[in-house]
User: What shape does this take?
Amino acid sequence: MFAAPNRLRMNAVRIILALLTLTIFLPTSSILLGEDLEDQVRDISHKLRCPTCQAMSVKESEAGLSLNMKNKVREMLEAGSSEEEILEFFVERYGEWILREPPKKGFNLVLWLAPLILILVIGFIVIRTLLRKTRTQKTPPVTPLTAEEQTKIEKDLNRFQSD
Assistant: This one.
């Protein structure tokens, strides 16, 4: 007869413990989400050039426009936008120059590959020039020693051998 109230009490205690556990761990998970959000904001804002400073990224700049851009990135991330969507938003607004690292497509691909191509071409020219020089520089033919040179060498050799 008293078993039912005890069972209800035990269930109530379990529910209260579960709620307490949730209230303890929920704030820490939201802090972790906030830290993760800030990491994403920093990563994305590092990829954007500050329109005011131009030599700095939005992440590094403390200009008012950069702060507004960081806030916009944060808002878009909170709204569920992806990194690509956020970068595209800023490209549509400011043009491709806003990206600190231009995309590797179209004319930009030529700019990315130009240094490598230049190094390869210069290397090819240097190697070809060196090979041509070694082929064209022939060693002069060896002429036999004259009798006078031969006797002088023999005298010198005999002098060294006698010492």
Observations:
- The helical segments are 3-46, 64-78, 83-94, 107-136, 147-162.
- The first helix runs from residue 3 to 46.
